[in-house]
Amino acid sequence: MVFGRIDRPIIFWEDGSSIIDESVTKLKRILEGKPETAFVTEQYMKNYTTIYDMCTQKPPENYSDQLYNKFRGIFEEYAKQTVLPSIMEKHDEYMLREFSQRWDINKIMVKWLSHFFFYLDRFYTARANLPNLNKAGMTCFRDHVYESIHFNAKQVIIALIHKEREDQQIDRALLKNVLDLFVQNGMESMDRYENDFEKFFLEETTSYYSRKASSWIQADTCPEYMIKAEESLKKEKERVTHYLHSDTEPKLIKGVQDVLLVSVAKDLLEMEDSGCSALLRDDKTDDLARMYRLYHAIPKGLEPVSEAFRLHVTSEGNTLIRQAEDKATNNNVVEQDVIRRIIDLHHKYMVYVTECFQNHTLFYKALKQAFEIFCNKKVAGISSAELLAMFCDNFFKKSLNDKSNDESTIESTIENVVKLLDYISDKDHFAEFYRKKLARRLLLDRNFNDEHERTILTKLKAQFGGQFTSKMEGMLTDMQLAKEHHSGFDTYIGNSGKPKGMDFTVTVLTTGFWPSYKTSDLNLPLEMVSCIESFKAYYETKTKHRKLMLIYSLGNCHLNGRFDSKPIELIVSTYQAAVLCAFNNTERLTYQELLEQLNLGHEDLARVLHSLSCSKYKILNKEPATKTISKTDSFEFNSKFTDKLRRIRVPLPPIDDRRRVVEDVDNDRRYAIDACLVRIMKSRKVFSHQQLVSECIEQLSRMFKPDIKVIKKRIEDLIGREFLERDTENPNTYKYVA
Amino acid sequence: MHKLNRTNRDKVQQFVAITGASEKNALQTLKATDWQLEAAFDVFYSQPQPRSNADMRRLEELYNRYKDKYSDMILADGISVLCSDLQVEPQDIVTLVLSWHMNAATACEFSKEEFVGGLQALGVDSIKKLQEKLSFMRSELKDEQKFHEIYNFSFGWAKEKGQKSLALDTAIGMWQLLFAEREWPLLNHWCDFLQDRHNKAISKDTWEQLLEFARTVEPALSNYDAEGAWPYLIDEFVEYLYDKSVVEK
């Protein structure tokens, strides 16, 4: 179908052309702001139909080609004759303004003329494979105006930006328009903007901030510099929103960071008296937070900061340890204060990690590494594992008496203990010391808070596994069961009809849960023997096939001391009671006599006698009255003894078994290493030496840090016992012997 | 023999003349190789010398010469006689090589089986022949592989019956004997170290690994790998060498 009007006259080129020219002139005048009437609809229509006709007429009066060229020609001529000169005769900001305005005009002109010439776009441009009218118009501007102007424009823009950086006011809207112009002149791509402007802009930015950095770093302290750097980055970001294209932002920020932060990093962070270490030392959390913010975005930027953090925390920790050592050598007593102070240190720097350093893993790691270093140091020969166990012991004992400790304090102290334990490598030492002290608390102190004890065990179990706490949990369970036995026994005694005799309770301990204790064949005073027998009989009724082993060293006795001035109740251990009861029948006994009568060992007897005759309470008189017990001493009941209290506890200090604990644990470690090695080899069958050693260390690391030499010795032992053998070809490899 | 044709009979005779084997053996071998003389020679020489009754008797006589009066073993006295017959000192290392050939279980005694078996393995049945073999046996010590076997063997041989480890003095004596054949510059330091610092018996693993150490590690310890699988005693030896400034770290 052919659209057209029937019987219309042919429009010849010259006529059509001049109609168009007329309109174009009118349009130009309108756009340039010259006095001119607006287009009315008829004029508009006339233009449109003229062109329409000229395009639809049959050849040779089909003027599509010429019309297209004319369209282009209009713009080209305008650009060359009018637009370009008008821009070029101006300078600086005025030039930019003209450039921007001419661009706007061009856009409108293209729009209008495209309407007039619309029909060309309908079929012609596509068929002839030519750019459409809009494109053609724009291209003309680009080729004949933009290309000649952009260089100068760029210079002006950059100069203006520089002005703004120096805190002077500039016309941001203008810049935005001009930069938009750059973008749009790239047609579909950003390459005009990038190559004609952005590239130069970024270079200029870099050198600008480079100069700033050099001068700041000379004159300013680290915090001051950082504030300026932060401010600069902020301003540059704002600049993007005001007039730069958003694509520029990442490149711009990176460029500024590189110059302000990366290249000066060493000088900045290590600045004397105000750099990273100084800020840490002086607790300048705000500045540190800023440092984090600034360096966070830079790849590997935080590493020097976290390193400084680690070193600082390590040195603080080492100082604590040293102070404790010094105090200990002066006082001869190691304060558990040090544990409390380590906990506080941990808390302090954890706050740093969560707040200044936004929970970043690098800083968690640094904190951990720092603590692992000084938490494994000894203080006056006592390992931190033992100190921590002592701390727990004291804490639990105190919390019973001191009701001011509310639940949340107790809870948080327990949590802190568990956190601290994580840093200690010899966890098995802690477990053993803790267990020993727990035993004393449960058995000797009697008054223990089951709930608190269970809470800490639950947390330890959650953190370190069931195997860590199973024995201790067993101990607590035993105490619960013991209560049942107490009442059961009482009923039994009641039912048996025998006279009650003395008040007597037995606590049954499951071997294996509790630390191992020496037994001794103490000769009990007669009064006590029958009690023991009746309990044994009772226990037989409850469970058969179990052997009861009596551990007198852990027992407690309440004795009535009939002294001259007044009777006093004495709370003593069973050993002490046995010694004292011996004086019920005789006034005076020698050391030797006591030794034979009671069947105690020398070490124990000496300890007991010392506690009764040379310590705070002199229940017995010793001859000669020296400060130490010798085998030739003799003893007498001190009837003259008295005290203002009606009931006193005569303590029997425990033997220092620290060395034994360490030995026991080391022995256990040998078994653990053996078991681990065999387990690994059983599954791997063939394994190289290095791999075996490192996997063994890895598996055991939850409990302790095995010594490589010890592992080697165990491997050799296993070879000797024919669990493993060396590979004949390669002695560095082991094979499992089934 | 009569059933054979002339050619084959000749072959048998030739075979016997060259190898010294019995006719019966010659017949067997030639039959097995389809009467190919060359192949028969190959077979014959690659086989161990088969027992023959004559050999056995001579070996038994020899054994009886040295056997102890009261037990069915050759003991220390018998060994002294053997050594003097062979004209070697009892401490001569060649006796160790001989024991190795015999696969002797313990030093200073040979069971009948060990004695007889060892001599057969060497292919000798008289003292004279054994004496002739002595230089060959000495040369075996120069062979890398054989020395290794002899060295490892000597641990089990030198230790007390029923013990797992080798007494230190014995071990040192053995090392000095063995390493006289193969220079090891650190030998004296090793012995000093053991007497100074260790003073306990030597385990099998340590014994075996020491040879490896002597073979592979430079006297200057430049290629010693501290992370390697060396027994801890050897690691301690290295520490000792550094301590005593025998070697620069």
Count of helix runs of chain B: 13
Top CATH class of the domain at 302-480 in chain A: Mainly Alpha
Contiguous runs where pLDDT drops below 50 for at least 5 residues of chain A: none
How much of the polypeptide of chain A forms β-strand, as a percent range? 5-15%
Shape call of chain B: elongated
Strand line-up across the major sheet of chain B: 1-2
- Low-confidence stretches of chain B are none
Secondary-structure element sequence of chain B? HHHHEHHEHHHHHHH
CATH-derived topology of the domain at 302-480 in chain A: 5 helical Cullin repeat like
Under the CATH scheme, the architecture of the domain at 302-480 in chain A is Up-down Bundle
> Share of helix among residues of chain A?
55-70%
Please give the most extensive interface between any two protein chains, plus how many residues each contributes: A-B, 15 and 14 residues
Cα distance spanning the termini of chain A? 96 Å
Q: What is the CATH superfamily label of the domain at 302-480 in chain A?
A: Cullin Repeats
What is the strand arrangement across the widest sheet of chain A? Answer: 1-2-6
> What does the radius of gyration of chain A come to?
48 Å
SSE class of chain A: mainly alpha
Oligomer: heterodimer
Mean pLDDT of chain A: 88
The whole-number mean of residue pLDDT values of chain B reads 84
Domain Cullin family profile (chain A): 383-613
Protein name (chain A): Cullin family profile domain-containing protein
Family (chain A): Belongs to the cullin family.
Keywords (chain A): Isopeptide bond, Ubl conjugation
